[in-house]
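4.2 Preliminary Data

To establish feasibility before requesting continued support, the project team ran the inverse folding procedure on a target of 254 residues. The structure was first converted into the token representation described in Section 3, and no sequence information of any kind was made available to the design step. The complete token record follows.
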């Protein structure tokens, strides 16, 4: 039988997109063991999904959550990740930036830079950079996805393939334990794959809620990435993939 505590757990996870066991235990004034049992029960009902060290939303691999919800989930973590990424992008660099709320946080963190040339299929990223006099911003052509301002389609892929840039700053919807990179829209994935092929360094930006998250379309593998920026240590199975591929891991801690 579901208890009031369970309803509060569901409410908190829906609000944040992901909650750690320790954070839930502190919020609800119970032991971590109690929270683990609660998460297991709610996961069996497919209300929540167990992740490394916490819980996220149910395992819908077909459709992503609304952009407005994703935009506010784990915003502090995204901002810390973004600040760390910005430290590794020098002035006068060229870069791709794809679709994603963490990528948009990186864009805001880059506003103190100078001489950047940005090619993006994200209208929100273009808007963030639009008033910067020292940046050259190029928007890819294609079909605008109304729900989040992403630009996708064959014309977008053809446009991206005209460039060779220093960095690709890539968001992702999910990372499987075996290192598979996952997303929800195959059209978005094909654009991201073109960016990976035409960048010298690939920076993957993903907060902890993306680790172990399920999605239906395979984008690639962690071994294609130069560096991964996240906010907690990935689980051992994923760490083995990261280390075997020689991917640099950067943790944006509190």
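Position-by-position output of the design step:
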């Amino acid at each position: 039988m579901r208890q009031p505590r369970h309803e509060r757990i569901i409410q908190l996870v829906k609000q944040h997109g992901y909650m750690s066991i320790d954070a839930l235990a502190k919020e609800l004034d119970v032991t971590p063991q109690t929270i683990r049992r609660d998460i297991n029960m709610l996961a069996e009902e497919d209300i929540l999904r167990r992740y490394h060290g916490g819980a996220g939303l149910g395992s819908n691999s077909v459709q992503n959550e609304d952009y407005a919800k994703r935009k506010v989930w784990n915003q502090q973590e995204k901002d810390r990740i973004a600040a760390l990424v910005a430290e590794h992008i020098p002035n006068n660099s060229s870069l791709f930036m794809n679709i994603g709320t963490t990528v948009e946080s990186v864009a805001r963190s880059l506003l103190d830079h100078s001489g950047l040339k940005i090619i993006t299929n994200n209208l929100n990223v273009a808007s963030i950079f639009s008033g910067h006099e020292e940046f050259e911003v190029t928007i890819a052509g294609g079909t605008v996805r109304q729900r989040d301002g992403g630009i996708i389609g064959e014309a977008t892929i053809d446009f991206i393939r005209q460039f060779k840039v220093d960095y690709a700053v890539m968001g992702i919807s999910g990372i499987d334990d075996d290192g598979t990179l996952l997303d929800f829209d195959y059209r978005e994935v094909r654009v991201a794959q073109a960016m990976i092929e035409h960048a010298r360094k690939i920076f993957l930006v993903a907060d902890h809620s993306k680790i172990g998250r399920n999605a239906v379309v395979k984008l690639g593998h962690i071994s294609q990435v130069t560096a991964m920026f996240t906010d907690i240590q990935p689980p051992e199975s994923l760490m083995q993939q990261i280390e075997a591929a020689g991917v640099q891991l950067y943790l944006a801690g509190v």
